[in-house]
Design goal:
With 114 residues, the chain is an alpha+beta fold. The chain has one helix spanning 67-112, and strands at 10-14, 30-34, 43-46, 58-60. The protein has two domains: 1-65, no CATH class; 69-114. It is 40% helix and 15% strand. A four-stranded antiparallel beta sheet has the order 1-2-3-4, with no helix packed on it.
């Protein structure tokens, strides 16, 4: 077991079904994915109350990453996040253009029908 603070650099899924580990509180731990530079993409279990209420349950699910993965994965993740932001920006721009096109057609039709 090891301690680690990854609250802003991890994603979590609560375990489903029977089986799996139980933390010191008796709760079902979350299976999280670390996105720190030291452990990119590495999964671990932690208590829902990790670093609160005195429970420090933490166990790695995956083995340590090789040095090549630790070099490549953070850049790939940053690229993915940047692309997702660009897609969201393009979707907003598309909606604006569709609205402006609709308004321009409405104005055109109101002048044309007069």
């Amino acid at each position: 077991m090891a301690g680690m603070s990854t609250s802003s650099n991890s994603s979590a899924n609560q375990l489903q079904g029977d089986g799996g580990p139980t933390c010191h509180c008796g709760l079902r731990p979350y299976l999280k994915t670390s996105w720190t530079d030291a452990n990119p993409g590495r999964r671990f279990y932690s208590c829902p109350n990790y670093q609160r209420n005195g429970c420090n349950y933490f166990v790695w699910e995956d083995p340590p990453m090789c040095s090549r993965s630790m070099m490549i994965l953070p850049g790939m993740r940053r690229t993915k996040v940047q692309m997702e932001k660009e897609i969201a920006d393009l979707k907003r721009a598309k909606k604006l253009m569709e609205f402006l096109l609709f308004v321009s057609w409405c104005i055109f039709l109101s002048f044309w029908s007069s």
